[in-house]
From TrEMBL:
InterPro entries: EamA_dom, EmrE-like, Small_drug/metabolite_transptr. Residues 28-110 form the EamA domain. One of its GO terms (biological process) is lipopolysaccharide biosynthetic process. The chain crosses the membrane at residues 37-58, 70-87, 93-110. This is Multidrug ABC transporter. It is found in: Cell membrane. It comes from the Bacteria. GO terms for molecular function: transmembrane transporter activity. GO terms for cellular component: plasma membrane. It is a multi-pass membrane protein. The keyword Aminoacyl-tRNA synthetase does not apply.
């Protein structure tokens, strides 16, 4: 397997965890607007997004530009799974159907 694909998959996972941290921060109430934006979850979340951006740009070195959006779409699946694990969000039939379409599109693209 191409190392650049692995780097891009790592980037997708890092961005997904960053979104979970930002959602966790958004669910809390804060005493001031400054604390709302300068807290552990927000700083770590945006830091991870920044890291994800660099990993994605680095992965462009060894991948075709047409492959990257296809692999990035796996982020939807990862975020859904992480939301279930961390927030106990329900995975409905509609979500499963949507994820099946995304995974089928990835499968069709790479076949």
């Amino acid at each position: 397997m191409n190392i650049y694909i692995l780097i891009l998959l790592l980037s997708v996972c890092v961005a997904s965890f960053a979104q979970i941290l930002l959602k966790k921060s958004a669910a809390k109430t804060y005493s001031s607007p400054i604390r709302e934006y300068l807290n552990f979850y927000v700083i770590c979340g945006y830091g991870m997004m920044f890291l994800s951006m660099f990993l994605t740009v680095f992965s462009y070195r060894g991948l075709d530009f047409s492959n990257v959006p296809v692999i990035e779409s796996l982020g939807y699946v990862v975020v859904m799974l992480l939301s279930y694990l961390f927030f106990r969000e329900k995975i409905t039939k509609r979500k499963i159907f949507g994820m099946a379409i995304i995974l089928a599109g990835i499968f069709v693209y790479y076949r």
